[in-house]
Specification:
about 0% strand; about 525 residues; about 85% helix; mainly alpha
Amino acid sequence: MPASLTKKVGIASLIMMASILLSRVIGLLREMAVAHLGGASSAVDAYRIAFALPDLVNHFIASGFLSVTFIPIFSHYLVQDNEKEGWRVFSMIFTTFGALLLFFIMLAFFFTPQVMLLAAPGLQDQPPEQLARVVRLTRIILPGQFFIFAGSMLMAVQFAKEQFKWPALAPLIYNAGIILGGIALHRWIGMEGFAWGVLAGAFLGNFLIQYFGAKRVGLQFHPVFDFRHPDFKKYVGLTLPLMVGLTAAFSTDFFSKFFGSYLPEGSIAALDYALRTMFVLVGVFGQASGVASFPYLSRLVAENKFREMNQLLNQTLRRYIALVIPFAVLMIVLRYEVIRLLFQRGKFDEAATARTSEVLLYLLLGAFAFAGQPVVMRGFYAMQNTLFPTIFGSIAVLVSLPFYWFSMQQMGINGVALSMAISAVLQATLLYALWNRRTANVESRAVYRFFGKIILLSLALGLLVHAFKINFLQRLDPTTFRGSLLLCSIIGVIFLLAFFAVGYVFRIREIVAAINRLIEKLGLRRLNKAQ
């Protein structure tokens, strides 16, 4: 694979990693604000459940997939030097699907109570005021889905043009809007303030800022309907499976509300706090590398460079997704301290910390799969094949339902978390195996071996630092903020130093390369200072 392409993907990944890291940090601040003001209460459960219907509308219009289905089409026009026609197709899709989405939003607005009882059937057994609260919050959040749809389209053209700066701001502004809305309005309207923040953040971050970003790359939009255009038909064909299919990300969010509605008060809140904590790790490595590599995967497909495409996908898995494993093991060792530092204040008490940290343990078992599956799926999407991964994902989700139900009955909210992790691991592993078979990915064995080495190394070091924590750091009280902070700092430094040292000794290529890059950069800095 050309070094210039590797460098471009690396730079794009760093930009998206910085953006997503900041977004996740702000997202954690958002969760900290929710935990401080609402704790793990029925009011927070209602706020979480209120996203079920907006997410459902978003899923049916495939807003979350607009980038991955539209970028290959738009990239084809860029490669063919026919950008004008690309903007015309953009206008067709925006006009048609935007109008369809507005219709769905109005329909959902009027039938909110009925749909919510289907999405979270456990609400029938709760006090009537809980359903009323969920309905009101849902209706506030619903209109934001149009801004998310529009922003996805506007970000897609920026990604296709290899511009990542303005899209990188979207999640930052979105989360900031939620925090400001919640803090500013909580005194008067409680959790409803966070819902109004969702709407404001979606408008500013996902729509307004992205409109200016798209204008900078030459946005051309004119309302037009043309159902006969071949690329409009292709887009519908690519997107339709995603509209009706069940993806892992959608099922995770949906099942947390569906099964959580049957469990005691605060269960949904605890699961959601744990999910948001895990997704910091997943987002920084998985989402960033997937988003950054996808435009280049699409361009390689458009140029019929399939061998290079496989190399890029394998490299993304080895360089970025594998790093999730050691950090997940480290977080398992420090799960109580991490939740204590992040959330235990205000209405979020010691009991909520214990419950959330236990849920986090089970989720982290599948962290690398949550990060890796979207990357592999983007390989299929780059080849304009959305049908196969959607059918595969839907079957996997449906097959997992009995296990979800059984685990919930036996283990409560921990069982739901464990089901999510096991389902993610099985789906990611099987999907990558099927990708390798379909594309004759000859380098896949090296990827398997590399992941095996990282898993064994991380588990061994995790057991060692856990033993060190128990036997030599007993004087540090994890029930205090200071004790938790010191434990995280000491164990974190020891684990990471040991991980890179062992990786260097055993000559694990990616670890050696990372250390050499760091040494080189430090050497250049010393050289600059000397000059």
